[in-house]
């Protein structure tokens, strides 16, 4: 179903606000981010902001949803025959997305998610979760994973470790290379899940 012009305009406005917020957070830090400043810099009216978001925290929380939209588009043409490599690619791509948007952005995403009751990052209807689950199921069907856990349990475990690495990076004040550590942690898990694989 094709989007209407109004829906396309709404998506453009939301994207503009989100990316302007990322830019302002990188330049000035989250505490300096105000809705007025954000609207001025993005060229979006305050009324339009409140039409799409209830607060700046709500906007920041949408960062994960923005990643999921991009992931869905990417997966439409993604062809990786090895489900283990696909899992690695998808999990690392989220950490790369957060890293690319800046350390302060990562911290604010987690703060916003910890301060709300229904945290988006742990939802099991997210494109991210469903994509990893799909490839975990494929890996299990092909006999590539050796575990007593079911596909949902393995998916939860992999994503918990990914979130844990991001949180640890924030807690250590970004003192190490996030992507190198993320790859090492994930490779350790995947190597153990595939141990004994022909």
Radius of gyration: 18 Å
Runs with pLDDT <50, length 5+? none
What quaternary form is this?
A: single chain
Please tell me the overall pLDDT.
88
Identify the overall geometry: globular
Instruction: Specify the biggest β-sheet.
Output: none
Number of strands: 0
The proportion of strand residues reads under 5%
Number of helices: 9
- Topology order in helix (H) and strand (E) letters: HHHHHHHHH
- Helix content range of the residues, please? over 70%
Class derived from helix and strand content:
mainly alpha
Distance between the termini: 44 Å
Tally of separate domains: 2
Write the layout of secondary structure elements.
Blueprint lengths: L4 H24 L6 H8 L3 H7 L3 H20 L7 H18 L2 H12 L12 H15 L9 H21 L6 H16 L5
Comma- or semicolon-separated keywords:
single chain; 198 residues; mainly alpha; Arc Repressor Mutant, subunit A
